[in-house]
Write a structure and sequence with these properties.
Structural class: mainly alpha
Order of helices and strands: HHHHHHHHHHHHH
Helix content: over 70%
Length: about 350
């Protein structure tokens, strides 16, 4: 029944007449409001992507919090333990990747004078320098504009680094908040559904959340296995910085469809830079390991978590990369799993009753 006015603020008047002016004004106001909403979403696209990442991580990490709560750990302490574990993993990855980059950059700078001296001793190089006036061109290029552009590039690189750190911290803080208030947010979302449909929506929603969490746990397990195997192989063949390469393989393996190949290419390039036999060994190792992962490990791990058609998973990964980049690729498969569940439980039964 419609709510009866209390009379505290007077008696409601008669409804306004539906004049053509009022209809046109209302339509124009709706178009303006829609365009304003579009501009707001476009301008806040970067923040919305961070929110989506944090929500996805919170949904994936919530099963760990639930497991700790079943063991008698309070909710706040369980969230703190899970968040601390994630922070330690991030710090471990940074510690593994940054020192090799800094060390190799320092070694290159130290060896740069010797490289230049070797080039100057080469008669062919000297002839080319004289013929094309290389030194004069270098001196003319070293002017104020070139230096300004170089400094701009340095400042741009610093801005990129600080921006990445800021976005990482933002995602981490949002993930912790979402984990801490996960049950409240879920209850609030279900309360927005009409009471007559709330129970069914809750059952389907909980199943979707469970699939997303199971997918993330399975993907992390496969990535850890890939990183561990790469670490052992790198130690056996003598690759430099084996732990850093293992972290790279584990992180890239989280990207569906193309991530494993990307990590294999990076490690193989490092192997070929070390020596030709080591590079060939890396290529053969990843060729064999990817077959084992694709046809034995991945199906067994993911069969119990998400049931997604392979063609649908490939198309979803491609569309996710096109829309949101790496983030889209990461959330593509659980999104398809959720859509398949809604299609099977809601859309198809409704079509059968018509």
């Amino acid at each position: 029944m419609p709510a009866v006015p209390s009379g505290k603020f007077g008696t409601p008047g008669r409804p306004l007449r539906r004049s053509s002016f009022l209809i046109g004004f209302t339509g124009a106001l709706g178009v303006l409001l829609a365009y304003t909403l579009y501009l707001g979403i476009r301008n806040a696209g970067g923040i919305l992507v961070l929110v989506v990442i944090a929500l996805f991580l919170a949904v994936g990490l919530n099963p760990a919090v639930v497991r700790l709560r079943r063991w008698g750990v309070p909710n706040g302490l369980a969230v703190a333990v899970v968040a601390l574990t994630v922070v330690l993993l991030l710090c471990g990855g940074v510690v593994a990747l940054v020192p090799p980059v800094v060390t190799q950059s320092g070694q290159f700078i130290e060896q740069l004078p010797s490289y230049v001296e070797d080039l100057r001793r080469n008669p062919t190089v000297n002839d080319l320098v004289v013929r094309y006036d290389v030194m004069e061109r270098v001196q003319s290029a070293a002017n104020a504009d070139t230096i300004g552009r170089a400094l701009g590039g340095v400042l741009g690189g610093a801005q990129l680094i600080f921006g990445t750190v800021f976005r990482t911290l933002t995602v981490l803080v949002l993930t912790i908040y979402f984990l801490a208030y996960f049950n409240r947010l879920r209850s609030l979302g279900y309360s927005l559904v009409p009471r007559s449909r709330r129970e069914r929506v809750q059952l389907i929603g909980d199943e979707i959340l469970a699939k997303v969490g199971a997918y993330m746990v399975g993907a992390l397990s496969i990535a850890v296995l890939a990183g561990t195997t790469t670490f052992v192989f790198a130690l056996i063949v003598g690759l430099p910085y084996p732990f850093a390469l293992a972290v790279v393989v584990a992180v890239t393996d989280l990207i569906p469809q193309i991530g494993a190949t990307l990590g294999a290419v990076i490690v193989s390039l490092v192997g070929f830079a070390t020596s030709l036999p080591v590079g060939i060994a890396c290529a053969v190792f990843f060729l064999i390991y990817q077959q084992v992962e694709n046809y034995l490990v991945y199906p067994k791990v993911m069969r119990r978590s998400v049931e997604v058609n392979e063609v649908a998973a490939l198309l979803a990964a491609l569309l996710g990369v096109a829309l949101l980049g790496v983030v889209g690729a990461l959330i593509a498969i659980p999104t398809v799993a959720a859509l398949q569940l809604i299609l099977r439980e809601v859309v198809l039964p409704r079509q059968e009753t018509r």
